[in-house]
Model the fold of this input.
Amino acid sequence: MTATGPLAGLRVLDLSRILAGPTCTQLLGDMGAEIIKIERPGAGDDTRAWGPPYLHDRQGAETGESAYYLCANRNKRSVAIDLSQEAGADLVRRLAAHSDILIENYKVGGLAKFGLAYDDLKESCPRLVYCSITGFGQTGPKAHRTGYDFLIQGMGGIMSVTGPADGQPHKVGVGIADVVCGLYASSAVLAALRHRDLTGRGQHLDIALFDSQLAWLINAGTYYLTAGEAPPRLGNGHPNIVPYQVFPSADGHFIIAVGNDRQFASFCTVAGEPGLAADPRFATNAERVRNRDALIPILNDITARRPTEVWIADLEAENVPCGPVNTIPEAFADPQAEHRNMRITLPHPLSDTVDLIGCPVQMSETPVSYRHAPPLLGADTDDVLGDVLGLAPEDLSALRTAAVIGRTADA
Done:
């Protein structure tokens, strides 16, 4: 399938693995860029082993393709190269010379030993946008440390405001520090491409998980910067808006997300308790925040009287923001998710097809395209090295014999 997105014609050399870098490159790939994923022969991206669950083959047996790997590696071509050999590092240098963007998430200085650091490439590849993603950045007292999502969530403050008020701090249920870092990286790459197209000069992008985690503290971070004190941990509550949390129903739970006084008055009318909206303790949002501990038990008692579906229907009719607490299967079954094509199916060589999460970007003139399922390890080694570098079959055979590139069996 031909790329249709706005980045069609750009080539990305992807030396990243795990989640932050692959999230960035998958998004660039969805928008049309060609992504060449460099992997270690025989092992590949660490997340290939992060299972179960694994994709099942046509006979129902587990393959080596983990769900975690599948989540962030579509629209890529896998090339298995051993960077520890000079011949392998040289192949990557040559690929960099034919690329617009390089994304890597090695430890600080990790690629320098292969002659693949930014300083090694900037003279020979002056137009290259080189993006380094690390735990703590290229500078500073912790630059040498390895960064993992869970550690960054803890160190970056988000866990201090996540979880029940009287329990342990909790991490977010997905690797959100990695994902948001990857999104920041993609924005930075696109901005650097704009600069490159205007000036002809590439540059080095230094993106850190820790920095991006602090950045997406957003209102919780500025709560501290403004008030001079840490925001409280409120479970599902909101520090600045009440009521804005999960409430019990007669048959489960649902969310009320009142954002202003009119919506609160409408909720009270639907609930058959209009006097609550007139109570001076609850009449304004500021007073509701101050009197949260008095209001929430009252609301819990009220909401427990009706089933979830009844509450949602009645509140939606009065334009009071509310919604269910869906399981992941329920979220994908939502008619809105189906309408927006957030579940896609691609051909896969081991299982005929694989289901993946769709790209959330809708573009009227240059829509995203889904061209490749997440590739098998090394599946595209010969094609890429032949097409991009012009290597002949005998050249590839010699490199494979020397274990510089992956065996055909890796594919």
